[in-house]
Write a structure and sequence with these properties.
- This protein is 45% helix and 8% strand.
- By secondary structure, it is mostly helical.
- The strands form two sheets. The chain has a two-stranded antiparallel ribbon with strand order 1-2. Strands 3-4 form a two-stranded antiparallel ribbon.
- A hairpin with a 5-residue loop joins strand 3 (145-147) and strand 4.
- Helix 3 (106-116) packs antiparallel against helix 4 (122-131).
- The relative contact order is 0.07.
């Protein structure tokens, strides 16, 4: 049986038990009302019970018992394992590598991704690459992407300032001896 049918059968059982209690109570009330006609009115004060004249029988006291429906223990539901979600953009890691290196422009990144990931759509990849420069839509919210001096896309934290690049290149050129003019 499914979960709904178990719950439905439990609810029906509880309703039947409640209906049986009501019927028993009605039957008890019916017999009590018949007996009440035979029992004279009594007044009970403190520890004395007074019976009015004309009655020689002792009054009958009924004990009322209430049955409590058995408590239902909740079923322990074990959550099913979630299926592994397949990424719609499997190229994100590759694009991250390219942006850290700073060696490709937007068109080159798009072409490279389309070659490596044939299942992806061109429009989706183009939108992803275009959105990299937009603060609102980029995938990496904490890392901005800019166009470096060479015209390639690169993360801002990986861009080397132009002055530093020239200083690094200049000492290497000075270390080489100049050729004498012939």
């Amino acid at each position: 049986m499914g979960k709904k049918s178990k719950k439905a059968s439990q609810a029906e059982a509880a309703n039947q038990a409640a209906n049986n209690q009501i019927e028993e109570g009605n039957q008890a009330m019916g017999s009590a009302s018949q007996e009440a006609e035979n029992i004279p009115a009594t007044i009970v004060e403190g520890s004395e019970m007074e019976v009015f004249a004309g009655d020689t029988e002792t009054p009958i006291v009924q004990e009322v018992t209430t049955e409590v429906a058995p408590t239902q223990t909740p079923e322990v539901v074990v959550p099913a394992e979630k299926p592994v979600r397949i990424s719609k953009r499997p190229y994100i890691a590759r694009v991250c590598e390219l942006l850290e290196a700073g060696t490709h422009d937007a068109k080159e990144i798009t072409a490279l991704v389309l070659v490596e990931f044939a299942d992806t759509k061109k429009s989706g990849v183009q939108t992803f690459v275009t959105d990299l420069k937009n603060e609102k839509y980029r995938h990496w919210k904490d890392r901005a992407v800019v166009v470096n001096a060479a015209g390639k896309l690169q993360f801002v934290d990986k861009v080397v300032p132009v002055e530093v690049q020239e200083e690094v290149v200049t000492p290497a050129e000075e270390a080489q001896p100049e050729k004498p003019a012939e």
